[in-house]
Each structure stands twice: as structure tokens, then as C-alpha cells.
Amino acid sequence: MSTSTQQVLEVQDLVKHFPVLRGVLRRAVAHVKAVDGVSFAIKPGETLCLVGESGCGKSTVARLILRLIEPTSGTIRLGGVDVTKLTEAEMRPHRRQAQMVFQDPYASLNPRLTAGSIIAEPLENYGEMDGNQRKERVRSLLERVGLRADAMQRYPFEFSGGQRQRLGIARALALQPKLIVADEPVSALDVSVQAQVLNLLMDLQEEFGLSYLFVSHDLGVVEHIGHRIAVMYLGKIVELADKATMFASPQHPYAQALIQAAPVPNPRARRDRLVIEGDVPSPLNPPPGCRFHTRCPFAVDRCRSEEPQLKPAATGQLVACHLR
Length: 324
Known about the structure:
By secondary structure, the chain is an alpha/beta fold. It has helices at about 60-65, 90-95, 115-125, 130-145, 160-175, 190-210, 220-225, 245-250, 255-260, 300-305; strands spanning about 10-20, 25-40, 45-50, 75-80, 80, 100, 180-185, 210-215, 230-235, 235-240, 310, 320. It contains ten helices and twelve strands.
């Protein structure tokens, strides 16, 4: 993947292996290969959705991009700068370019702070504005995410789950970032509230030109908000395509199974489904060759010995499959 100043975010060969420590001396006896060579890019104003089963590594990718955890290897270019090589002090000005909306709106807000203080905290940390300007900025952000200005004096426990997530979004917007990493931001919300929060995120994206890395396991949510979709399996991206192509013609067997397993609105609708049997292998000891071959109904000998690379398929998307 070539480096381009047009990309808000570029990730190349990103790897994160967590050591398994044993014994009195706490020596590493094995490694959990949570992320194992992931590459993608996000353009201005674009939403890239990372999807896959629990444990596939998608939330780890989200945290690596913000350097909430340190990568084992690979590069993360934010605004053209490789942030993996920066010290903590050098990283500070770049952190304002990328902010995060967390999955749990209950745990991600400090219960001891008022809503106004929560949103103002990033502005204070970066010395932005004087007290009156910060207060006006907080009031403006609250109103923009659909909350009343008098909510500034209330504490998180006084809000509903959807309102708390709106607070989290307002906090993420405070420093006017270019990229927002959203890790399952609506999975803890009721379905009707999910739609409201998703529509809010889309409106904000159009208004401020935001880019999103949107992590989700819900294909209905992804179909609503995404522009491109990257399907992950056991630490690797197995297919990457624009939304229309992915839902119309998925090429990787795992992507096909995910799409076909998604519920459809019409209860009378019938469609063929690719059934995947067996359990996901352990990331401690992933299988050789294609990591999906132990569950793939189409696997051949080559799949068991040679790892497929992510490359263009005839239909346009990038697919890591020997049969495409």
C-alpha cells in the first residue's frame, strides 16, 4: 500500500503479539497473535468498518491506532506521520488528530465529573481557550449532539445510555479531530437508540468532514454507516471492499458466511447459507497456510500449507483466498 498525503490514516503490516508469561521469572513461553499483518487506509470523510467474530483482533487494531497499546511491529501513519516511532511527548500533538468513542457509555465517562467537565477536559489538557470560551464551546457541542445546554451540570448517572454515548461523542469532537475511532459504539444501546446515534455520527461526518474507523460485529449497522468494509479473521484481513460490492458479491468464504448469516427484514425470505462448522482456532497457535482452512468447506491442499495474500479479485475487492 503506497503512502499518500491524501490519506487521513495509513496502516501497514500492523502486528501485535501479546506475550504469555509463566514461572517465577515471568518469562514469555508463547505469544497470542492478536493482530498479525494488517494493512488499510482511510480517506478524508470516509468510514471504514472492521467486522468479524469476537476475538478476531478488530478492537486491538482500534487501540493500536491510537497507541493506547504499543504495536509489536508495523507502521501507523496519521496525517502522513509515522506515529509508531514517536516518543510520548512527541505523540501528544498528534493525539488531538484522532479521538475515540468507546463501546460502553457507562464505563467510559468519569462518574465524579459533570458532563460539562467531561467535555471540557480535553480542551483544558491542551490549553485551549479561556474559561468562558471553553464553557461556550461545551454548550455548543452539547447542543450539536442533541443534548440541552443545562446538561452541563448533570452527572453521568443522570443520563440514559444513549445520552451518555452522545456525551462521549461530544468529548471526542472537542479537539476537532480528523479521525474518530469508534469501537462498537452502539452495541450496548437499544435498537431505536442505535439508529439515532448512527444518524448523528453520519450527520457529524458530513458537517465536519470526519473520517471514521468503525469497529462492529453487526452487519446491519455496518451496512447503514460504512463506505468500505474490511473483514477480519484470526488477526488478519481476509477481504476488503466497498460496501455495495461486499454485500452484493462477497468473495472470501468467511465473508460470504457472515453476509448470509445476517438477518433479513422479510421473515418469508429464503436464501442459501454457507454454514461454517467448528470453532475458531486459538491465536496462540494459528493454523499454517490460510487461517480459515480448518473451517472452510472449499479448502484444498494449497490452503493448508501456503498463506494467501490480500490481492485484487476479478470483482474488484481485495481478497486473501487461493480460490479467487
